[in-house]
From TrEMBL:
It is found in: Cytoplasm. This is ATP phosphoribosyltransferase. The gene is hisG. GO terms for biological process: L-histidine biosynthetic process. The chain holds residues 1 to 224 of 298 of the full protein. Residues 53-218 form the ATP phosphoribosyltransferase catalytic domain.
Amino acid sequence: MQTQRLRIAIQKKGRLSKECQELLKRCGVKFTMVGERLVVHAENMPIDLLLVRDDDIPGLIMDGVVDLGVIGENELEEVCLERIARSEPANYVKLRRLDFGGCRLSIAINKGDTYNGPQDLQGKRIATTYPQLVKRYMDEQGVQFSTCMLNGSVEVAPRAGLADAICDLVSTGATLEANGLKEVEVILRSKAVLIQRTGDFCYDKQALINRLLTRMQGVIQAKE
Ligand code: PRT
Ligand code: ZN
């Protein structure tokens, strides 16, 4: 169901939501967040904001349910690999990389363990929320491993005896430090990105996207 209004999916609550809302506001989109609403209508442009869990954003784009979305590259690439593995549509257009949400997806092991390279992970169990990205990396390295899939508390898995290593997002490194872990490999460097569904847009929608992109360019450059 195509609507005339441009649909943009953004994270409802979390590390990307504040900066994402700020960016849209600086681009001149006027809106007010009200309670637990899923859809927020912009007041001055034909734009609807869809407020969802970040995990849902890549799929909403790849299924063509929304027109634009803002998502971390880590989540985007994981979902993409997952959908390819299930033979589901996994297409999208990356419009631009944004200047927030920076982090890296890294493998970490117990501080006391020695490490000379990926081959030291041979036969080990790795706890992660990103099994597809870990598999891609380990396949590239030709190293066999097993997975321990966790959607939270990944950093406690080695201490709890659930895994030998972890692969998780890192920004300052404080969480690894607090859990007696050390970062040994960076497998992905990630930032928030603006993505678009594939397929055609009506003239007005395309013109609105172009206008938003031009403004975004200006907003981001002004900050640099
Ligand atoms: O509820 P919802 O599903 O929408 O949110 P979420 O809990 O899945 O995601 P959220 O809000 O935590 O993160 C959203 C996105 O922010 C991620 O997908 C990344 O693209 C980006 N991002 C940037 C981060 C971090 N930095 C980050 N440091 N996401 C998570 N972390 C976590 C990390 O998992 C670890 O637990 O912060 C901890 C490490 O931080 P340091 O500073 O101690 O290294
Ligand atoms: Zn999430």
